[in-house]
Amino acid sequence: MSSGSEAVRFSADGPVGRITIDQEATRNALSPEVIAGLDKAITAAGECSVVVVRGRGGTLSAGAELKFLRSVLDDPAAVREYITSIGVTLDRLESAPFVSVCVIDGYAVAGGCEIMLACDLAVVSETAQIGDRHLEYGLLPGAGGSVRLTHAVAPAIARRLLYTGEIVDGATAAGFGLVSSAVPAAELDDAVDALVARLARHAPDALRGMKRLHRKALADEPAAAITAERETLLAHLAGASAREGLAAFAERRAPRFGSL
Q: Strand, coil or helix: what is 123?
C-alpha cells in the first residue's frame, strides 16, 4: 500500500510502514505542505507496528521553512498556526502506537532534529550532521526540541547542544546517547533493515504495549509505573500473543505471531 501527498510519501508492507519527506530541493524543510503530509502519513501508519521515517536524499529535514515563516511574521495568528502545527504533528508522532525508526544520512537540524527526537529510535550514518541549531539564526525551538533534548542526554550535553547551536556528526551523537546507533554510510540501509526486521518479528500488541510502558515510566513516579507495568502484564497474559510465545518457548521453536 502506498499513498501520500507530493510532499510526503507513505507506504506499508505488512507491519512495516515507511514515511519519506520528499522535498529534497528545500532539504526537506517543514513547509505547511510537508507538515500536513506528515500528519496524514502518521494517521495512515496507525495499524503498522514499525514505521521508518526519513527524508529524500539522506537529509531528514533542515527545519522550518524560513521563507514561509518570514512571509507571515507580521501576522501573529498565522505564525501561531504554523508553529503549533509542527509541534502538534511531532507530538502525534511521538505518541503514535507504532515504534518509529528515524534514519539520517545527511542533516537533521533545528526542526529536523526535533523530528528525530520525537521518534523512538534513530539510526544514522557516522557522518550525519545533527544539531538543534536554532540559536544560529536567532531563533528558539518550538516543537519540543528543548524538552526532548534535555530528557535524551546528560544535562551538560543538552546545555552544550542547545546553547551553542553546534552540529555534531553521527558518531559523536551516538557517543552522547542522542541516537540509537551510528554506522558507516555504506552500511546504513542494511543496519536499518536489520533493526526493522527485528522489531517487526515481535507480536504487534506486545510491541505496542512495551512502548506504552516505556512512555509511562518516563512520565510517572517509579512506584506508579511499576504497578501499571504489573497490571499491563496480567491483562496481556490473557491474550493470544502471550500464549503463542509461551507455547513456542515450550516447543523450542520460533513464535508464529504473524498467524494470530
A: strand
**pTM listed for this prediction:** 0.90
Question: pLDDT tens for residues 153-164?
Answer: 999 999 999 999
Q: Counting every residue, how long is the chain?
A: 260
| Residues contacting residue 211 through CB under 8 Å, at least 6 positions apart | 97, 98, 99, 120
- Angle of helix 240-251 versus helix 204-219 axis, rounded to 10: 110
How are beta strands 16-21 and 8-13 bridged, if at all?
A: antiparallel
pLDDT higher than threshold 70 for residue 135: yes
As given in the structure block, the three cell numbers for residue 28 are: 526537506
Percentage of residues in the chain with pLDDT exceeding 70? Answer: 97
| Phi, psi dihedral angles at 185 (to 5 degrees) | -55, -40
Mean pLDDT for 179-191 is 97
Partner residues linked to 123 by β-bridges: 103, 181
Q: For residues 17 and 44, what is the distance between their CA atoms, to the nearest angstrom? A: 9
